[in-house]
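Batch job 17 of 40 flagged for manual review because the log was empty.
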Amino acid sequence: MKQLFLLLLLGVPFLSFADLRPSQFSITISCDKQVVSPNECFQITIQVSNLTVQNQSILIPGAQNKGKRLIQLEYYQVTNNFYTKVAEEIRTIQMDTSERGSVYFKRLDPKESYTFPIFLNDSLNYTKHIQSNYRLPKLPAGTYQVLAWYLPWDEELAKYTFQLTTDFDKNPIEVSEEESKIEMPAGGINSNYISLTIASDSVFYPKENTCTPCEEHCRFCHAIEHEKWHKVERIIRHEQHDWRKQHSQLCWISPNPDAILDCLPTYSTNELIFKTKSGIKYAFITYQIGKIYPVRQRLVQLFHLVFNTSFGIRTSSYKKVRMMKLTLW
């Protein structure tokens, strides 16, 4: 009897399925503050990554303004290594829907990441921008563990970017390399935990050391902080003060678009998020890419009529990039 029991004990592991699939997608969060007051506006940085060896498309919040949010925050209290969920962000988005909005597609190279911020307690932009549509829940003062969930399956567009999987699938559905998508569980994917302390008025917390990524008397940051937008626009237009690098008052610059129209001239935008004395400000820069030379076009037409050749004269250039304006929205 003991020999039969030992044989079954040794045989069961070989009959069980233990070949867990490697993760193809990850979400990571971070916060430069560890202690916040209940009504303080602060930033949490979200990073989503393509862990596959192929180019893949994902969904990002973009200009989403209705339905259920793509990124949800949850708050846990830890007692003796036991995590108890005490609050979570309401998934239903409550925003102004007078303008049409939706999630965006983002194409990522193998092992590439996409980073964007969200802002909590930003009451000025709460109903206007999905990145600011978050509030710190009303919790007692104390330390909490916060994590984020990436939940794409409530979006109709998710089927074009992700392959639905469950914990009970032994093998994923076989698709060709051209049709391959990132595998995404039905319940989404969660991030790491970060520690966040909600301050109490009766407790003294030492001031956190914050390192400034730019120089001490940065003109670009000074112009942003005091909302001198004509100076900000001039610095950006003339590419001064390394404005594309990290700055204390510049929270985020969106990456360049994945594609633009191939007719010249065409137009492109970069979204910007600034931190000013009065709060968070959203803006975008419009660029004109390419230039048409009308005088050269007339000459080429004339040469074709007279000599039946253009003499190699170029009537346009795709290398010309001109900033048109900075717009707050």
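Reviewer: the log was empty due to a logging misconfiguration, but the result itself is present. Helices lie at 2-15, 219-225, 229-237, 294-307. Unflagging and moving on to job 18.
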